[in-house]
């Protein structure tokens, strides 16, 4: 049985997200083997992963619906919204765990 993180619901996109927080999260995600970060604009980050549907299902189960979305237009891609540092850390940990 999967353990649930401390976040109960996904955090909605936040227009006030700092560029520094987005850069910090992007840099950390790029260090996960099996994850490739792509240039992204706005308050979200696009990731290339091997099994996007499976990863999104697991992440959304742990952190709440909408934490990760599968990009149906481009194969192998998911997107995540950059939020507050606490939620971003939980998102990073879930991605690292489920991609490994």
Taken in chain order, the helices and strands follow as: HEEHEEH
Which class best fits the helix and strand makeup? alpha+beta
Give the low-confidence spans: 1-14
Q: What gap, in angstroms, lies between the N and C termini?
A: 17 Å
Number of strands: 4
Beta fraction: 15-25%
Range of helix content? 25-40%
Shape: globular
CATH superfamily: Aspartate Aminotransferase, domain 1
- Into how many domains do the coordinates divide? 1
Largest sheet: 4 strands, antiparallel
CATH architecture: Alpha-Beta Complex
Strands ordered across the widest β-sheet: 1-2-4-3
Mean pLDDT over the full residue set:
87
CATH top level assignment: Alpha Beta
Question: Would you kindly provide a written description of the structure presented here, covering whatever features stand out?
Answer:
The protein has a single domain, classed as Alpha-Beta Complex (Aspartate Aminotransferase, domain 1), CATH 3.90.1150. Helix content is 39%, strand content 16%. It has 3 helices and 4 strands, in the order αββαββα. It has a 4-stranded antiparallel β-sheet, with helices on one face. A hairpin with a 6-residue loop joins β3 (68-70) and β4 (77-81). The protein is globular. The relative contact order is 0.26.
